[in-house]
Write a structure and sequence with these properties.
The strands form two sheets. The protein has a four-stranded antiparallel β-sheet with strand order 1-2-3-7. With 150 residues, it is of the alpha+beta class. It has four helices and seven strands; from the N terminus they run E-E-H-E-E-H-E-H-E-H-E.
Length: 150
C-alpha cells in the first residue's frame, strides 16, 4: 500500500512534537478500552504499525491531546478510534489571542475555537499532509527516521 493511503493509528506526544504511527488495519493496543487512556492504554500493537513519522509543530502553535486537560472527561483510545474526540488538536500561532502568553488554553477551549485543526485516528497521510499544508506551512510529516517499531 502506498504511504499516502496509510491511516493514523496511534500517537505519542511530547510538547509540540508527536510521533505518529500509521497502518492499514483497524488497530488495537493493550487496554484501549479502558479510561483514562493516559494511565491505562499502551501503544498500538507492533503488528499494526506499517510506518512512523515525526510531526513537529512551530514553537508557538498550541498543540493538545485530551490528556493535557485535567477537566476533560476520561476517555479511552477506543473512543478516539470511534472519533468521539480527536486524538490531538492544534491551533496555528496566527490565531492565538494577542495576550495568550499570559492566558492558558485547554483542550476544551481549543475544541470550541473555529480555527483549531482536529486530527483524528483513521485520517490518511494524504489528509494530514493537506491539513498541514493549508494551516501550518512550515510543518510536515518527517518519515526520515527509522524507529525500528516493525
Amino acid at each position: 500500500m502506498e504511504r499516502k493511503y496509510l491511516k493514523l493509528i496511534d500517537f505519542e506526544k511530547k510538547c509540540n512534537q508527536l510521533r505518529l504511527f500509521f497502518g492499514n488495519e483497524k488497530p488495537w493496543g493493550d487496554d484501549w478500552d479502558d479510561a483514562p487512556y493516559q494511565h491505562n492504554a499502551g501503544r498500538v500493537y507492533d503488528r499494526f504499525i506499517k510506518d512512523t513519522a515525526v510531526l513537529s509543530f512551530y514553537y508557538d502553535d498550541i498543540v493538545y491531546e485530551p490528556a493535557d486537560d485535567y477537566s476533560f472527561p476520561d476517555i479511552s483510545k477506543e473512543a478516539m478510534l470511534r472519533k468521539i474526540v480527536p486524538a490531538f488538536v492544534a491551533l496555528p500561532v496566527k490565531y492565538r489571542d494577542p495576550d495568550s502568553y499570559w492566558n492558558s488554553y485547554s483542550y476544551t477551549d481549543l475544541m470550541l475555537n473555529k480555527y483549531t485543526i482536529q486530527f483524528f485516528l483513521g485520517m490518511t497521510v494524504n489528509k494530514i499532509d493537506k491539513l498541514l499544508k493549508d494551516n501550518f506551512p512550515k510543518t510536515y510529516l518527517d518519515f526520515s527516521e527509522n524507529f525500528n517499531y516493525f
